[in-house]
Amino acid sequence: MSLLNIRRILKPNEDYVAHLSAYHFQGKYTLEETDPFIMLAHHGPQVLGPDNAGMPFAPHPHKGFETVTLIYAGDVLHHDSMGVESVIGAGGVQWMTAGAGIVHSENTSPAFRKEGGTLDLVQLWINLPSRQKGVPPHYQGFTAEVIPVVLHAEGRVKEYLVSGESAGISGPAHSLTGVRLSTIELQPEGVFSAKVPAGKQVLLFVMEGELEVNGAALNGRSLVLFDLEGGDLQLTASAVTRVIFGFAEPTGEPIAARGPFVMNTDEEIREAIRQYQSGKMGVLAE
């Protein structure tokens, strides 16, 4: 295979959600252009002092997609209308299939809110094809201890594998759509390479560091968009660098998105709103 062709390199918008810092790329691409990876937001790293307010994500609904939260510092308390309550700390992952509809909240644990500390996390939204938008909602929580670490380049590269396979090792998360997802930490002169099949959408988010991506020099937070022809990906770090890497099959379907709902048509969005307002997605009071 030849090297994957880079289509665009994007720098994030910088703003706040209440008191929480946010780096995101909304408005810089169409949802179809990055489908199924339709949203990515990086919160932090940010130091919150003692007796802080945690995260400002009170109970809210989702339908038609999956949320994946990768936690690098601090913790996240997930609570949902199925009765699940789960705290996952640094190095862990929360993978929620909203599917037919769910209400959940996201905050830090009471201990973190009392004591304070550094919070650093990335949330990714993964679109579901129409045939799976009605699946029952489901939550998967993984602590750092169950995320396998795959070593590359004589240990200069560590790959924390969330889902899919690398070097014969499988990640613990079950993906409905075969998403391959990992966090990769590279030391200076560390090299990571992977083959991406044709037709797959690649997710490559540089969280921090300096590296070359298929010969293009990058510095700091960046989202790299590739063509869909498939090919080889090669990362070469010149400083300590951390990236999120994944690939998956695009749905190839129309996308209608409004707030917390991602469907195929505007009528389906209106129906999702009616379902939420009537309590069919469950109720979560906090």
Notes on the protein architecture:
With 286 residues, the protein is mainly β. 8% of the residues lie in helices and 52% in strands. It has 3 helices and 26 strands. The strands form 6 sheets. Strands 1-22-19-24-17-14-13 form a 7-stranded antiparallel sheet, with no helix packed on it. Strands 2-3-4-11-6-9-12 form a 7-stranded antiparallel sheet. The protein has a 4-stranded antiparallel sheet with strand order 5-10-7-8, with no helix packed on it. The longest helix has 12 residues, at 266-277. The protein is globular and about 55 Å long.
Task: Output the keywords.
mainly beta; seven-stranded antiparallel β-sheet; globular
Secondary structure topology:
Layout: E1 6-10, E2 13-17, E3 20-24, H1 31-34, E4 37-48, E5 57-62, E6 65-73, E7 75-80, E8 85-89, E9 93-97, E10 102-107, H2 110-115, E11 117-127, E12 138-142, E13 149-152, E14 157-163, E15 165-166, E16 169-170, E17 180-186, E18 191-196, E19 201-208, E20 210-213, E21 216-219, E22 222-226, E23 231-237, E24 241-248, E25 256-258, E26 261-263, H3 266-277
Antiparallel strand pairs: 1-22, 2-3, 3-4, 4-11, 5-10, 6-9, 6-11, 7-8, 7-10, 9-12, 13-14, 14-17, 15-16, 17-24, 18-23, 19-22, 19-24, 20-21, 20-23, 25-26
